[in-house]
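Changelog-linked ticket: N-carbamoyl-L-aspartate example.
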Amino acid sequence: MRSVIDILDLSVEELDELVACANDIIANPDKYAHKCAGKKLATLFFEPSTRTRLSFEAAMYELGGNVLSMSDAKSSSAAKGESVADTAKTISCYADIIAMRHPKEGAPLVASLNASVPVINAGDGGHNHPTQTLADLLTISREKGRFDNITVGFCGDLKFGRTVHSLISALSRYENVKFVLISPEELKLPSYVKKDIIQQNNLEYVQTTDLEAVMPELDILYMTRVQRERFFNEEDYLRLKDSYILTPEKLENAKPDLTIMHPLPRVNEISVAVDEDPRACYFKQVLNGKYMRMALILKLLEVK
Ligand code: NCD
């Protein structure tokens, strides 16, 4: 029985297998329509979500399985003070696999140590979000055809943006990947990612506050939302929230084959005018996320 709490729980070969499986699902959806018949996925979300929860649920339905959903922590026994460990033991009695989002870093790990079924981390606080990374990797694979020899710019809230931390971890295992880290001083990448992942793997990186200056170098631009819910005070959020707003003008010096990504939800950081640009891939990411979650569910349930 295997859980996925960190993207590094999956080897490079397994990521390739998941991408291949997702591409096969896209090409032959009928082949997969009953693969999870009789199986149940529980979605336990203790934080807001649109895409992640619904894509997990859509993924399970498209595999012919069923879903038990707990979308509102306020209506669960967590509100009575139940521990994550006890909740995980309980849900294991009902479901074959669990997807959990929690505001506390490490909560899905605790759940996985107590559950008797696989647990998937659907986002833990400002820490990690491995299944968004799966969506991102399928997008990069389909758009670029490779994970190596790329320059990836991450822009916005690199401190609290868990999708950034997980994607950097995943890409750190490929050759000749360069990271351009674009953020305000206060929202720089945490040192555990910079030291333990980027420097540890001897990867090239630069840190800057100036998006336009680095735009011409980028193969991928990964925009992020300033994570309001992780701030200690509203004043700091208001000061930093519009640090970067991507507009068609700012893309004038970008590569013609730039891939523009964003995990969504977008607040203000990409102007809607950019949506018309053929390089905008953020809604493709949404769809890719469903296929990669289908592939991951099949893998963890060991369905052939
Ligand atoms: C992200 C998240 O929850 O971390 N959203 C998502 O799952 N696609 C990004 C965000 O909330 O900004």
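Closing comment: Example verified and attached. Residues 130-285 form a domain with the Rossmann fold fold (CATH 3.40.50.1370). The chain has a mean pLDDT of 97.
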